[in-house]
C-alpha cells in the first residue's frame, strides 16, 4: 500500500477515534444554563472550570483528588522498592529456591481481584482499616508488588553477577549494594513500573467501591461513578467536567511517558 | 522483542550453568540477608492476596451473610449458580465480551500497527488511539453513555441523516452489551496497536529484506513473513485480551450498572452484586471461584501457546 494511502486511512480513523473525546470536552465546557441534550455537537460557551468547581462542591471530589494522589504515588513507590528487593534477593543474592519464591510472589497477580474483595472487606472492617487511607495504601501496594517483582527480577538478570562480586570485594554490605549499585542502575525500569501502576491505581474502581465509603478516603474514580448515578440528567455538564478532571492526569502522564509505558507493557506480558 | 525474550535466555543460561538441582545446591553466604530482602514482598502478597483467596474458596462452600458463622453447605452454591437465570445470562454476556474483545480491538490494533509500521510520523498517527487507553473504565463509560443515551449525540447525528427510528442503545439486550463492547474496543485498540508495533519493530531485518528482494509485498509479505513472526506476540495479546475481558467490570458498571434488570451483567459484576448488594457471600464467592478457574484456564492456554511458539523466533 502506498504511504499516502496509509497515512490517509490513519488520519481518518484517528479523527474518528477522537470524536468521543471532542464530545466530552465540548459538553463538559457548557454551563448548565446553555446545556441542552439536543445540541451535543455544537460548542456553546466555555465554563469548564466553573463546572469543575461545581463538581468539587457537589461531590467532595476535591477530597478524593488529594487522597487518590497519595494512593497513586505512595503505593507504587513502596511497591517498586519491595519488588526490587525481591528481585535483588533472587538474582543477586541467589536466594535458595529463588524461582519458587518468585512464583509465590508473581502468582498473586494471576487471580481476578474478585477473589480477594470479600475477605478484605471483612478483615478490614474487623481491624479498623475499612474506609481509611492507610487501608487503601496497603491494598494498592500489595496488588502492585507481583508485577514489580516480575519486572525487576527480569531486569536484574541482565546485570552481570561480577558487578555484585566486585562490590563485595570492596567491602560493601548487601543493603549498600542494593541501594547504591542495583537500584540506580534500574532507574528506568523502576520509573516504567511506577508509571504503569500509578495509572492503574488512579483508575481503580473495584477496590475503591468495596473498601471505602467517605469522601476523603474514596478514590476519585469511585466518586465519579457515584456522581454519575446521583446527578445524572440535569447536571450532565458538571458530571462530564468531573470526568475531564479525573481523566486528565493519566492522559497527560501517558502521553508524556509513552516510551516507558511501551517498555512496561512489553515486560508485563507474562 | 529483546525484553520479551529475557526470561527464556535466562532459562537457557540457567540450564547450561546450573544443572540438576540448580541454584538450590549452591551455598550462598547471603541466606539471611536474601530472606530479609524478599520477606516484605512475600508477606504483603501472602496476607493481602493469598489468605483472602483461601478464605473466598472456603466461603464458596458455605451459606453466609456476614453475620454469625458461615454454615458449610458443600457444593450447593455451585448448584444454585447454574440454576440461576441471572448467572446464566451473565455467563452468556461474558462470552460475548470475550469474543467481541478478541475480534475488534485485537484486529483493529494489528491493522493500525501494520499501517503505521515504517511510516514517517507513525508515532503521531498512533497517538489518537492511545488517548482512550489512559482513561479509566468509568471515564469511558461516562463518555459513551452520554453519546448513546436516548436522543444523545449518536441519535442526533443519525437524525441529521434522516434516521430517527434508532434502537434504545443501552436498554435493549443484547444490543447494550454489544455497544459496550464497542466502547471497550474504542479504549483498548491503542494498547494492542502499541504491543503489535513493539513486535513489528523487533522483527529481524534480514528475512524482511530477502522477502522484499523476492518480490513479496502487501498481503503476501504479511502472510509469509510478518504474521508467522508475530505469532508469539499475537498469543500474548489474545491471552491478555481474554483474561481482561473475563474480568469486565468498570465499563458495564459505568454504563448500565448491569441493567436494565440484570440484562447486561458480566460475571465480575454479578459477583459484586451478589456479594455486596445482596449480601449472599457464599454465592458471590462461588462466582468468584468460577471466574478464577476460567481465567486460569485461559491464562494457561495462552502461556502454553506462547512458550511452545517461542522457539520459532
UniProtKB/TrEMBL annotation, chain A:
It is found in: Cell membrane. It holds the Pfam family BPD_transp_1. It comes from Agromyces sp. G08B096. Residues 65-257 form the ABC transmembrane type-1 domain. Keywords: Cell membrane, Membrane, Transmembrane, Transmembrane helix, Transport. This is Carbohydrate ABC transporter permease. It is a multi-pass membrane protein. One of its GO terms (cellular component) is plasma membrane.
UniProtKB/TrEMBL annotation, chain B:
Residues 91-302 form the ABC transmembrane type-1 domain. Pfam families: BPD_transp_1. InterPro entries: ABC_transporter_permease, MetI-like, MetI-like_sf. GO terms for biological process: transmembrane transport. The keyword S-adenosyl-L-methionine does not apply. Residues 1-26 are annotated as: Disordered. Keywords: Cell membrane, Membrane, Transmembrane, Transmembrane helix, Transport. It comes from the Bacteria. The chain crosses the membrane at residues 34-55, 95-117, 129-147, 178-200, 221-246, 281-303. GO terms for cellular component: plasma membrane. Gene3D superfamilies: MetI-like. PANTHER family: ABC TRANSPORTER PERMEASE PROTEIN, INNER MEMBRANE ABC TRANSPORTER PERMEASE PROTEIN YCJO. Belongs to the binding-protein-dependent transport system permease family. This is Sugar ABC transporter permease. It comes from Agromyces sp. G08B096. The lineage of its organism: Bacteria, Bacillati, Actinomycetota, Actinomycetes, Micrococcales.
